[in-house]
From TrEMBL:
Belongs to the peroxiredoxin family. The keyword Oxidoreductase applies. Pfam families: 1-cysPrx_C, AhpC-TSA. Keywords: Antioxidant, Oxidoreductase, Peroxidase, Redox-active center. Signal peptide: none annotated. One of its GO terms (biological process) is cell redox homeostasis. This is Thioredoxin domain-containing protein.
Length: 266
């Protein structure tokens, strides 16, 4: 099966989730989507990521042993030992996605009951420090049909296997637009967590590029100057972006683009 490429239509599927059954394209509606494929819910890396999405944690001065004692008392919990200092001061990212019209949905090779139990444990743990809700649906993909559909099985890393020897899903992000087109795909190694700041930065770039005929430069952040797309002539740019600045030091003026301020027209 060929790999999915940017510009491909995101494969449709039906699935059971923690918020009920969905048909993926219907669930997307007219929103953007951030589809997060995880290796396994009980890994420490995944728990830190989901805590960052689902709750706002402020600095807690309680001693670490209090947290460890609580975790020890939770016999059968699906939460592995978390390194305390790595999750304090994490800001809630759910509003950042919501205000950009981005729905978040997770998927991993766990059963639905495991997902429900895991979400309950995350909420119970996080509630000790801040209001915590796992507000996004999680897809049960125990048979890995959806992971196979999205070509996201780890066939290379021999350590990335479950107790049956089956490959886990690669820790991956897909950003999908309202037309169901794949606009971003990032695959992370098993040892590396996602960077939600970068994902949101790319969403901002894609959305501003779709709304205006612009591109964004290296390390761009929302509110900074953008670049008029090279397909826009200088004369057209004067009409579309009267406040733009032309940089004369670019060798090929026809392909240079021109920077404009972030105060774009409505």
């Amino acid at each position: 099966m060929p790999s999915l490429r940017l510009g491909n239509t995101a494969p449709d599927f039906v699935a059971e989730t923690t918020q009920g059954p969905i048909s993926f394209h219907e669930w997307i509606g007219d929103s953007w989507v951030c589809l997060l494929l995880s290796i396994k819910q009980s890994t420490i890396v995944n728990q830190r990521e989901h805590l960052r999405q689902s709750c706002s944690l402020t600095l807690v001065t309680s001693p670490l042993y209090a947290l460890l004692s609580w975790l020890k008392s939770r016999e059968g919990t699906s939460i592995s030992l978390l390194i305390f200092k790595s999750v304090v001061n994490r800001m809630n990212r759910a509003p950042d996605f919501a205000k950009r019209n981005v729905k978040v949905i997770g998927i991993s090779a766990n059963g639905l009951d495991d997902h429900v139990k895991w979400a309950k444990d995350i909420e119970e743990w996080g509630a000790k420090f801040a209001p915590t809700t796992v507000g996004f649906p999680i897809i049960a993909d125990q048979d890995r049909k959806i992971s196979t559909l999205y070509d996201m099985l780890d066939e290379q890393d021999a350590t990335n296997r479950d107790n049956k020897g089956l490959p886990f899903t690669i820790r991956t992000v897909f950003v999908i637009d309202p037309k169901k087109t794949i606009r971003l795909s990032i695959a992370y190694p098993a040892s590396t967590g996602r960077n939600f700041d970068e994902i949101i930065r790319v969403v901002d770039s894609l959305q501003i590029g779709d709304k205006y005929r612009v591109t964004t430069p290296v390390n761009w952040k929302k509110g900074e100057d953008v670049i008029v797309h090279p397909s826009v002539s200088n004369e057209e740019a004067k009409t579309l972006f009267p406040e733009h600045t032309v940089h004369k030091n670019v060798p090929d003026e026809s392909a240079m683009g021109a920077s404009i301020s972030p105060d774009l027209p409505n």
